[in-house]
Amino acid sequence: MVDMRILLVGAGGVGDAIAKIAARRDFFEQVVVSDYDLARAERTVAWVTERHPAPSGATPRFVAAQIDASAASDVERVAREHRVTHVMNAVEPKFVPTIFAGALAAGADYLDMAMSLSHPHPERPHEQTGVKLGDEQFAAADDWQKAGRLALVGMGVEPGLSDVFARYAVDHLFREVDELGTRDGANLAVRDDAGNEIFAPSFSIWTTIEECLNPPVIWEKGRGWFTTPPFSEPETFVFPEGIGPVECVNVEHEEVLLMPRWLDAKRVTFKYGLGDEFIGVLKTLNLLGLDKTEPLRVRSANGPVMVSPRDVVAAALPDPATIGERMTGKTCAGLWVTGTGVDGAPREVYLYHVADNEWTMREYGSQCVVWQTALNPVIALELLATGVWSGTGVLGPEAFDAQPFLELMARPGAEGGYGQAWGLEERTPAATA
After folding, report:
1. Owning domain of residue 291
2. Same domain for 207 and 229
3. Percent residues over pLDDT 90 in the chain
4. Least crowded by CB within 10 Å, which of 183, 304, 318, 377?
5. φ, ψ (nearest 5 deg) of residue 307
């Protein structure tokens, strides 16, 4: 058992949920909840401490710290100050390079839920990849390997759990895989005080814009990675547990960049159930240039200021961490796999996990999308702490045995698990068309 000391960078929706889930576990010595806004980190620590107080005289299991995630030197400083063994990145992917570098400089292992950002091909963005998601991190793999440190990248729900499902399917369910297709859908609704449904994304709009307006990436054996226009190849996918049919489209996502590095399949895709309204909003933001990250010069009462249009959009919308009480429904993350089963017969399955907002709000005070994302890195940290998972270099979830993860995830809480059942549906082509 590793004496694990975790630096949690970011106390927003997902970071807050990570702390709340971890508070029920005993595999770590301390979690340092850090944020640029110290008060936000302190709120998370206060919530956890009130419900899970440390014994009298014991070292607090959760403490708050201020951090500047945009500066690798500050990440290193906070990590060293608290003798951190693992840095858990829970902020927007634009901060990946500095947190990633700061963790390595501090001699700590690293986990994230979204990888370093992509840059489209300058001449043929809808046909060829440019800089791909995670390229900057994988370029540093030798440095992590030589340091004897591990960077576990893409360990959220999607990417993360979907990648664990992929490893499980390849190892245990299929002799040959035709497609590993991540499929994400929900029937969530957010309403105002009058009961009217409103536009309020359940996850960071900054990240959602990045994912959905960049050219989607597909991988095919013999062709490698290539891109298509945004929102391409729409299909209706039927999600389980009452969610039902949802139209899904191609979206840029880490699974497509991770799975082919370790798993044998003929095709790898990611499709997201966005809905017509959300797609329309994203297209309008793109048309108006409000999806851009480069600051613009804007006149104000106090003189000109430089403002990123995407930051303005994010500031104008409700914080995803605060909409849980207004939200109803379920969210489903999963992997659709087709190919030849171990018995030699054609097979098609959907491996999935569903989170119900009513339950996550009641149990953790976190809305279901951020809670489902937060669950998986906590499980991964526990497997690393106990030595069930181990490695060095820059690795995705596919590089590790999936069975211990899924067993710990599903085992009832009274028996030391997380009590989160996952599903496996045998499907026919009619169920996904």
Report:
1. 161-368+422-431
2. yes
3. 77
4. 304
5. -135, 135
Please choose, from the candidates 150, 148, 29, 159, the residue with its C-alpha nearest in 3D space to the C-alpha of residue 100: 150
Across the chain, how many H-helices and E-strands are there? 14, 20
Supply angle C-alpha 243, 247, 252, rounded to 5.
Answer: 110
Strands 244-250, 267-272: parallel, antiparallel or unpaired by DSSP? antiparallel
Q: Do 219 and 180 contact (CB within 8 A), yes or no?
A: no
188 and 110 in a common domain: no
> Using an 8 Å Cβ cutoff, are 35 and 15 in contact?
yes
Is position 256 within any domain?
yes
Which pLDDT tens digit goes with each residue over 383-414? 999 999 999 999 999 999 999 999 999 999 99
At 185, list the tokens: 């859908």
> CA–CA separation, 37 vs 77, rounded Å?
17
Residues 219 and 268: beta-carbon distance below 8 Å? yes
pTM confidence score: 0.92
**pLDDT of amino acid 432:** 47
- Confidence band of 203 (pLDDT split at 50, 70, 90): low
